[in-house]
Amino acid sequence: MFKNKKTYTYSELKDLINEELVNFNFIIESKHIFNVEFKKYRRFFRLLTKKTTKTKNDYYSDNLPKHLKDNPAYTNKFVYHYPTFDNYTETLGGNVITLTKEYVVDLDMNQLHKDFPNLKANEEKVLSLKDKVRSGKRPKDLEKDYEAERLKKAAEEDKATCGICNQYWELVNIQDRKNIIHDHGFTIRPGFRAGVCFGARYECWEKSPESKKEYVRVILKPALAKVIKEEPTLETVKEVNDLIVERSNKFKAYNSLSYDEQRKTDRPEKPEYILSGQQIGVALPLNKEIDLEFLTKVWSAWKTHLENEIAEFETAIKNWKLQPTPRERLGK
Fold first, then answer.
1. DSSP sequence for 88-156
2. Is the same domain home to 128 and 243?
């Protein structure tokens, strides 16, 4: 299971919950529930409604062997269990978002319970259907037409496709620019917004390939040029191993603090090997050195990823054709 490292706003979390409630209500109205759906929504409502709890860490010890002394799974006296948004399934993927302000920056759990007062009742409804669960997956004739529903919703809200993230977003007028994609994809930081999607404030993909052209020119090709120059050498190996030693020493100092002292101290950041164009690098171990072969594999994989993404974008640009927006398609 992949635990999402992205941060969200409360508004984005609400949208995710509402999307799952729409899907859940469709299942209930269809009068059929299948095993994967039962397991998913039993877990979904249980984790969303749970209270934050603290339990003793059974693995904690003052006398840890050397190879465990930097591992928080053994050095923290307590384990905290938080409410969680979890719509993950093995076949469809999904998000796992711990409901703390670390991941939802303006989270208000009291407001969440006011906005979604029926979560507990929905959990009980799922459990009441246990005897009616059918094996296998939902057959095609009982599936929901999700794409048709997304298209209808986009038409009603006058949304169109972002050329970068390929999701539907509102069309707006900003100053003298008409019908451009509204700002999206950002996270809220104290006093400002960060991380707006590159496709914001361009024409939608249905009307222009310009956002993709500019993304290749401004982001992808310069990143690839930098990465090619970052091919690791023995000097890179030395720099990375020096970073591992530095962070390892910081963790040792942090773990030697009492629990109360740790709460008042910023936890050190784990070392990572990060290349141009990456937002999150490859995590590095704290207890062993890495070699040139390892760094070269990481570098080569990222270089290939950028090359493939450029090829994918350029193919889409080459095959681009003018299309109607969802509202135009449905004659709204």
1. -BTTTB--EEE-STTTBTT--HHHHHHH-TTHHHHHHHHHHTGGGPBSS---GGGS--HHHHHHHHHHH
2. no
